[in-house]
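Case study 2.
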Amino acid sequence: MNLRRWLTPGIGVKRWLLVTFLGLLLLSLGVAHMLRQVSRDFEPGGPFDTLTSLLTLQFLPFALRGLLIGALGLTLVGIGAYRVIRVVTDPLRADADQPLVEVIYQKRFLARGPKVVAIGGGTGLSTLLRGLKEHTSNLTAVVTVADDGGSSGVLRQELGIAPMGDIRNCIAALADAEPLMNQLLQYRFPTAESAASGGDATTIETPGLAGHALGNLLLAAMTAIEGGDFEEGVRRINRILAVRGQVVPVTATPLTLHARLSDGSTVDGQSRIMRTAAIDRVWITPDGVLASDDALTAIAEADLVVLGPGSLYTSILPSLLIPGIRDAVLAAQAPRIYVCNVATQEGETTGLDLADHVRALIAHTAPGIIDLVLANNRFDARRPTDWSAEAVRLHWPPSGLVEPPHLVLDDVVDPDNAHHHDPGRLAAAVLRAGEAEMPRRRRAIARSAS
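Prediction:
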């Protein structure tokens, strides 16, 4: 496995080994030429002549002599080069258990991958990022800041900073040491109830910290260190935790999400809206929120823009309702893909089919904001026993749209959980669909320019 990775095209190792080999070959020819000239001055049969003959293996046949010396030289060059690289790079490796070739592969090969911007939040976005980071390190996750529940909601109320729960999840997903980093960032200090009923003997109640996720506290602390600059605090955490790509908040301003239901009543707050059915329209306050500069730059430079997966009304739309983000996606040169959830969510999307999802997305933003819709077409995945939702029905096209986006169906569901995407399958499907959509997107841009 390691040898195959070393020989991966584009990793930037083979070419320099070849240059080193050619240099050593020329050096060897120079030394041989010098020995040949010097040996002519030795007395034939004398001690110097005898020593030179022994060192150059003159007692062996010519072909065998060259084969042995060449094999020995190549072996020494390989061992020496490998050891030098290890000595130089071992102290710089972030994870001593990770093979050296994997470190080089990540830094060199993945750095040449496409620039992908993923907009959304919740479990769906972090699932997509886990898959995409195996294909490219040019990733930007633009994350919603409308959460008002749990630890994020408490810190938002007490410190006045944007909620960071979804940001924490995305940072954990993109961290190089993901499994361990995920456990660390997602760790929640126990409450009195959990300490009493909970679990292991090391569970200790921590007044003041009860219920808070460690990742949220780190983000809050870094924001304070940066003088209250939430965006700069997130940038610093990206670097400290060796994130493969970057995670940026869609805005530094905490957003409040509001919803109007089909009966005319209203519901306020993301945590309440996500449990509410029959949503007619959502909006955010305060008005005139400025989008993150990092998010706008990433969208403008992207090779692919992905909306979702994630909760339609509470994860994806809050970001797109910011005028700067909506306009940036509309103006993007890259293909824009909407990834629909594999299943409805009890509450906000109960009973919605594929066409309903797309119609709601476009109604809240603008026609032409997406070029392509990616949806799941495998329905035999295992359903959790406590699952009350249903697979998203593939009703298409949406009524009322003059030019509906293209539809791509693929097997992107987790075979063991019909409620979630599979990270690897989803990432591969997104990249395939984006590459296929690129020529159409270029033609559309050319027509609009003319």
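The two ends are 51 Å apart (CA to CA).
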